[in-house]
Amino acid sequence: MPRTLTREQARRIAVRAQLLTAERPGGVVEAVDGLWLVNIDPTSAVAPSADHILWSRIGWPYQQADLRRAVEDDRAVFEWAGFYRSMADLPLYRPMMRAWPRYRAQREWLEANDRFRRDVLDRLRAEGPLRGGEIPDTSQVPWKSTGWTNERNVTQMLEFLAMGGAIAVSRREGRDRMWDLAERVYPADLPELSDHEAAALRADRRLGSLGIARAKAIKQPIEPIDVGEAGEEAMIEGVPGSWRVDPAQRDAVSEFEPRTALLSPFDRLVFDRVRAQELFGFEYIVEMYKPAAKRRWGYFALPILHADRLVGKLDASADRKAGLLRVSAIHEDDPFTADMSEAVDAEIRELASWLGLEVTGIPGS
Fold first, then answer.
1. What is the pLDDT of residue 165?
2. Which listed residue, of 300, 302, 324, 338, carries a Cα 20 to 30 Å from 310's Cα?
3. Cis peptide before 129 (omega within 30 of 0)
4. What is the pLDDT of residues 81-93, one digit of tens each?
5. What is the rounded distance in angstroms from the CA atom of residue 358 to the CA atom of residue 326?
6. Which among 6, 14, 7 has a CA at the least distance from the CA of 213?
7. Bridge partners, 30 (sequence order)
8. pTM for the whole structure
9. Is the pLDDT confidence value at 233 over 60?
């Protein structure tokens, strides 16, 4: 029979799995390994998502140079398909790389541009690492799309070659990715796994990072939010349907040590909006794509975690020219207690200090 969990236990399992308790990871590699995925998004209304996610776990010792060192020097972390990942997990992605591309339009475009593909590989072999803008467009057939990628032939070729594991991001210079042959970035001595073995291990790793998740959920490109048959079946009081729970996280739920955290809008704790609603009763959406008049919480509102509850949203922005972290509003889903307000205000000041800014606009300050 599946074990039944209270919603509090389920929330604590999810929070602890995402490294958001008082027991913090010791550095970037430990954090990325525990999180499984760290989102890469250049929006920096407060801070770039990867840096914000790592700071919210590691705390004040974390600096951007730590992530650069882990990627560029130690090669302990790599970038693929929009996320930073632990290099130890690379074997789990190799079968996905081998199977790519899955769609006919992509295969046909690569086949029609085989000479272009070889030109890009030859240029990187001779001169890499290179920015995309340093690679000439020698395509035979342009990439057609109704979106922003239309006729961005070099960009598409680099993305396709990276997805297929032929090239990789060697480092970043500002927002620019520096591309090189994968053999110069990825270790050569990692084990080879079958498709089935890798898929099962990916599901296990995903569940370990989430703590508790649905066996099936809305399909996501590249990175699912469901876990299949990984872990063990569980029920949650008051929540319909069955779940899968990581036994190690479930058994450690009594060790939960709470703290307060300000999360990136791209944080995996809130990425699955349905799960956030079911476990935390938390309604959330990134509103920067909405017209200002239709925003409820702000352009880049940060979810607020307090202990095992998502309790509100912080509408703030970093004004680096003025040296200020501007707090426009703290949206309380339910009225904060005095202790909650004090903890949230303290975390806002910690965020500002990490960013090297002064806080302006905290209510009651």
1. 97
2. 324
3. yes
4. 999 999 999 999 9
5. 8
6. 14
7. none
8. 0.96
9. yes
